Amino acid sequence: MVDALARTVFSIATVVLRSLCFDVYAPLEDKDGSAQPAPTPAVRPAQALPQDCTQTLARSVGSLSTCSVSYSVHQDGRPDAEGYCVLDSDHFFYRYSAPPAPPNNLGITREMAYDGHVFYIGESSDKGTSSVEKLLGDNPRDGAAAARTIDVPYLRAAGFGLPPTVSKWRTPPLDSLVIQYATTGKLTSASADKNKVALRFEIPDPVVAFAKGLDLDLAAKQMGGANLPGVQRMIDKLKKTRSLDPMRRVEMTLVSDKGYCIEHSEDRTSDGGLIQTVDCDDFEYFPQAQLWLPRRCTQRDYARAAQLSNGSSKEPTMTTVIHLVKLSLGRPEGVSFQLAYGPGSVVVERSTASAQNSPDGKIVYRKPADEKELTRAAEEVKGGSPRRILVIVNLIVLLLLGVFYAGRRWLLRSRGK
Question: In b/e form, how buried is each residue of 125-135, taking b as 16+ CB within 10 angstroms?
Fold first, then answer.
């Protein structure tokens, strides 16, 4: 069976760098209406970063450790989409809703949730179709989990990062990109002019790292087999991406008197080819959390992740503006960190021992049409269905009658001889 969900998720996974930006804001609030700054997490050593910068960014990460974020996404020629994210310690929920747009004119909602043990990756359409995939988090040996990317564009544009894939999930999940680059990469230059701090890093290229971390045979199998033309083209691109320079250049301008927020950033290939720029403005201070955030970011893409090997364009191929709608501290009421779609939805189970021990590493099934059908199916499996019991009794009676008459006939023939 072709895994339709994996086909969709994998196509998303090839675009590791996505667009995002934000605008309108609502006041930061806690459940009791009096939000307090979150405790500052332990600061990891960051190579050559000013101590004040490191401590301020770490405090910002702590303030967002339990929060909900709503935003809208605008791209030219497309209806505005909506994003919503909840962070709660090691729990996570994300939803991205895109209204109908050409060429398919199909509205799609993609969701991801983590309940502390199992990841749920779901997709539903306005035509009533839906599917959900279940995987274990923090499982580096799981090839399927390594192919499922995690990306909340608003947070990334504002300078915050999550684990890149399900297989690399960690607790706590949120991090500062500036601190992350300084610890996992190399800070090659730093300078300050009044309230602006300019940084340049060399970091492992996330697209190349993603391609190298994939099991290509498993990926091809999940998408229907390498014999399909589209699948083979995708595999060829991933192989070509693996051969690219594994390092990337990142240039950032931070505003020191606005919580060291990122005002401008550029991602370039090692030889200087422009990949993406992000410009943030309308910075807002949230005194309850001692937190600065941009209300709007404009992202310009010059090379899509899947086509990095083909070089970048001189002009942006896509411009995206994201507007912050609401930011709230604390876990919102009514949020579930599990996904459960209705009757008829497809479930791809990878999180149980029986699924992992199966030949394909998964069990695929469709939920029953309704609750009554599920109950009836369960009863029949247990042998508790009255109708099934009646059928079995009737069969036994017929079998006994058949044996009786056959034996009687044989006995009469024997006497006649």
Answer: eeeeebbbbbb
Start-to-end CA distance of the chain, whole Å, equals: 62
Residue percentage of the chain with pLDDT more than 70: 74
Burial 328-358 (b: 16+ CB within 10 A, else e): bbbbeeeeebebebeeebbbbbbbeeebbee
Helix (H, G, I), strand (E, B) or coil at 188: strand
Instruction: Retrieve residue 68's tokens.
Output: 């909900």
Identify the DSSP state of 149.
B
Tokens (6 digits) for 44: 């990891």
Cβ-based neighbour number of residue 17 at 10 Å: 18
Tell me the C-alpha to C-alpha distance, in Å, between residue 184 and each of 46, 61, 129, 304, 343: 9, 17, 41, 24, 45
Q: What pLDDT, on the 0 to 100 scale, is given for residue 396? A: 58
pLDDT of residue 320: 94
Of 153, 150, 158, 155, give the one whose Cα is nearest residue 265: 158
C-alpha torsion 382→383→388→390, nearest 10: -160
- What are the backbone angles phi and psi of residue 82, rounded to the nearest 5°? -125, 140
